[in-house]
Specification:
Layout (H helix, E strand, L loop, with lengths): L1 E7 L1 H11 L7 E7 L3 H7 L1 H18 L3 E3 L7 H15 L4 E4 L4 H11 L4 E4 L17 H14 L3 E4 L5 H12 L4 E5 L2 H10 L8 E3 L7 H12 L6 H8 L2 H10 L5 E4 L5 H11 L10 E7 L4 E5 L9 H17 L6 E4 L10 H16 L5 E5 L1 H5 L1 H7 L11 E3 L3 H14 L3 E8 L5 E3 L6 H15 L2
Parallel strand pairs: 1-2, 1-3, 4-5, 6-7, 6-9, 7-8, 9-16, 11-14, 12-13, 12-14
Antiparallel strand pairs: 10-11, 10-15
Length: 464
């Protein structure tokens, strides 16, 4: 048995030691932060603070048969409540608590607003209940931790063509220092190292290849020429394009010298996708490339598609987007339940746009019978269980959907940005779907964190 203190509390340790002294339990105590400095650590970097707590807890779980997470009781009623609920969600550790009689009704109500289940005992009540199942929340910190661990478990090589972008260099430093992936940067090694040094960025361990004079140029020129000669490409054009960083990076992935490519910090989506469509092409059972985002909310992760590529998808294309998006969700640990969105649910509406979603749903159910899918359905009915019971009571997806397919690019792009900005959601993507190998696009306004996340997702895609 182990007792884990995310934030160490001497008073609680003394209580536990006294209780266990009356039994034959063998126990250990672990903690991540001392009480007198945790607030400073949290204020300085909340992401790292939560990451350490999750890492410590997962390590202790592997080493012990039973772990009790000791919560906080020194910060006042509401301080305790909010911190302990947050910890329960981050660790997916079911919450057990005792309350004074005068607070019991209020605490029961407040906990019920935040947690799927819990045990709340009255002050003099003994614990007699069965153990609850672990929670299945995916907080932003938990999702990031799971992605990091999955990428590190089967390390892949990712090529970043935009090697002179400061954000790319900073992301490279983080990825290498945390041993998440192996990296290739493209360009003149002296110039790249000089740029990194001028910014005080350490890129030790990164492989640098210059497309102007690499050992692969002749091989790549021949490959590109053979792939595109039927489209009118001659050998001179192939030679010129191979020296283009995006084409060169795509050819590295095509020839398995790298497992994935991430580009777009300083180039357009078309410049990223065009070489991939010409060289790598789509998977055998897929006819198009689409883009999806992971939307990491307070305690769950959703998939939004297509937010990046197809302006006005046909019903057939929407059905395929639903299929590939469900596969993407599954690859990243989600149990996909797909909602094909509209402004009406079921048979309540009519018109061209609703009819298109009805047709897409019909095609998807016929072509991909294994999919758990509903459409047309409004967002509220897809997301919220109470609304679902009212609008679509017989649906197995309504109220439980985690993959949302929008009717067009306009709706999808607006919605993901609205959720990102107003709901404090972490938007990770766009992740391109449908290609034989992982090629992913960045926004030109991307942050270092966005590049890190996209590289990690690309590496996980390459594990499939």
């Amino acid at each position: 048995m182990a007792f884990y203190f995310p934030i160490f509390c001497e008073k609680n340790k003394e209580k536990i030691a006294l209780i266990c002294s009356k039994t034959n339990f063998k126990l250990d105590f672990f903690s991540s932060f001392e009480k007198n400095d945790y607030q400073t650590k949290f204020t300085q970097n909340p992401n790292n603070f939560l990451k350490k707590i999750i890492q410590d807890y997962e390590k202790i779980k592997k080493e012990n048969d039973f772990v009790i997470v000791v919560g906080l009781d020194d910060f006042g009623l509401m301080g305790d409540l909010n911190l302990n609920i947050a910890l329960a969600k981050e660790l997916n550790a079911p919450l057990y608590a005792k309350s004074q009689d005068e607070n019991h009704i209020m605490l029961n109500f407040l906990l019920g607003q935040k947690l799927s289940e819990f045990v709340l005992l009255k002050e003099n009540e003994d614990f007699t209940q069965d153990l609850l199942q672990e929670y299945t929340y995916k907080t932003q910190a938990r999702f990031a931790y799971e992605l990091f661990e999955k990428a590190k478990a089967d390390k892949k090589i990712v090529v970043l063509p935009e090697s002179f972008d400061e954000r790319v260099l900073k992301a490279s430093e983080f990825l290498m220092q945390n041993e998440i992936v192996d990296l290739i940067l493209l360009g003149d090694s002296n110039e790249i190292c000089a740029k990194a040094n001028s910014l005080n960025i350490n890129i030790d361990g990164v492989r640098i290849i210059n497309p102007k004079n690499s050992q692969y140029n002749e091989e790549f020129e021949e490959l590109l020429y053979e792939a595109r000669k039927s489209k009118g490409m001659d050998k001179e054009e192939a030679k010129r394009l191979v020296q283009d960083k995006t084409y060169f990076a795509t050819l590295l992935v095509h020839t398995q010298k790298a497992h994935a490519m991430v580009s777009g910090a300083s180039t357009t989506t078309a410049e990223t996708i065009r070489p991939a469509l010409q060289i790598i092409k789509t998977k055998p059972d897929v006819s198009l490339v689409s883009g999806m985002f992971f939307m990491s909310l307070e305690d769950k992760v959703l998939v939004f598609a297509d937010c990046a590529v197809m302006p006005n998808p046909t019903p057939e294309q929407l059905a395929e987007i639903a299929y590939v998006s469900a596969n993407s969700a599954k690859a990243f640990g989600l149990d996909p339940k797909v909602a094909l969105l509209s402004y009406s649910s079921g048979d309540s509406g009519s018109g061209a746009s609703v009819d298109a979603i009805k047709e897409a749903t019909k095609i998807a159910k016929e072509k991909y019978p294994q999919l758990e899918l509903e459409g047309p359905i409004q967002f509220d009915a897809a997301y919220d269980m109470l609304t679902a019971k009212s609008k679509m009571p017989n649906s197995k997806v309504a109220g439980r959907a985690n993959v949302y397919v929008f009717p067009d690019l306009n709706a999808a792009n607006i919605c993901y940005k609205a959720v990102q900005r107003t709901a404090n959601s972490l938007a990770i993507g766009p992740i391109l779907q449908g290609l034989k190998k992982p090629i992913n696009d960045l926004s030109r306004g991307c942050l270092v964190e966005d590049i890190v996340n996209t590289v990690i997702l690309s590496a996980i895609q390459a594990q499939e």
